[in-house]
Design brief:
Blueprint lengths: L8 H24 L8 H28 L11 H31 L5 H5 L10 H36 L17
The structure holds protoporphyrin IX containing FE (HEM) (2 copies).
Length: 183
């Protein structure tokens, strides 16, 4: 059965490219708002905004792909409570990725700031200037990143448990990034 081989290559590539970019975004976001990296602040901001815009599109495509290709069935050995926890953690991760990318985009564009990558691609601002909205989105952005980090932490702990302790094949559903045997 196809489900036994875990997620398909498209879902795996979405997962690992998103994971890598999200880690870089968290690092850049923290560094660019701290004094320690003042000398490369502008570069970090340009990177954060441009990569964030790419992530915004990537996350929406990923959610759309997930809706047309449901998750493969879990191994029978995984207890129902763990399945439910995993399911809701995944839903919240998707939701937080949408909130993070949307709030970041609106915070910048409604604040009247440029997103250099989108300017270079001649993509116009999709939200009118509105300082109040930008300020609220800034709070949402800063607040949501704590929740995102907490859920990522729980997610990595669970994945490590399956990979190194339970050794029940759950980790191989998503690793490696290309599905062995194709498809
Ligand atoms: C998953 C995607 C994203 C992650 C994980 C992320 C993460 C972060 C983090 C950790 C900070 C520092 C928060 C703090 O000051 O305490 C930050 C700030 C910021 N981010 Fe993001 N971000 C994401 C997407 C975006 C996007 C798409 C944009 C804009 C296109 C953006 C624009 C900003 C800006 C302008 C700040 C400075 C804080 C402010 O002025 O509101 N971010 N981000
Ligand atoms: C920014 C970091 C990450 C995010 C946002 C993230 C997000 C997600 C999401 C949303 C899913 C659910 C896939 C679906 O059913 O549609 C998933 C699955 C998975 N992730 Fe991550 N992930 C991250 C990092 C990691 C890391 C570092 C590992 C390994 C240590 C990992 C291992 C897995 C595994 C094994 C699955 C499959 C779970 C299952 O069989 O249902 N993830 N991830």
């Amino acid at each position: 059965m196809a489900g036994d081989r875990g997620y398909g290559t498209v879902a795996r590539l979405f997962h690992w490219v998103t994971a890598l970019l999200v880690f870089l975004m968290i690092f850049a976001g923290i560094a660019m708002t701290s004094e320690g990296f003042r000398d490369i602040r502008d570069e970090l901001f340009i990177f954060h905004k441009g990569t964030g815009a790419i992530l915004l599109v990537l996350v929406l495509l990923r959610v759309a792909w997930r809706l047309v290709r449901p998750a493969p069935p879990m191994p029978d050995s995984v207890p129902p409570v763990q399945r439910r926890l995993a399911h809701w953690n995944h839903v919240l991760l998707y939701l937080l990725l949408v909130v993070m990318t949307m709030s970041g985009y609106v915070r910048v564009v409604a604040g009247g700031f440029p997103i250099e990558l989108l300017d270079a691609l001649a993509i116009p601002p999709l939200v009118p200037e509105n300082t109040d909205l930008a300020n609220r989105m800034s709070v949402l952005h800063k607040f949501s990143v704590y929740a995102l980090m907490a859920f990522i932490g729980a997610h990595i702990a669970a994945a490590s448990y399956h990979a190194f302790i339970a050794k029940d094949g759950v980790a191989r559903r998503m690793w490696p990034p290309i599905r062995p045997g194709g498809g």
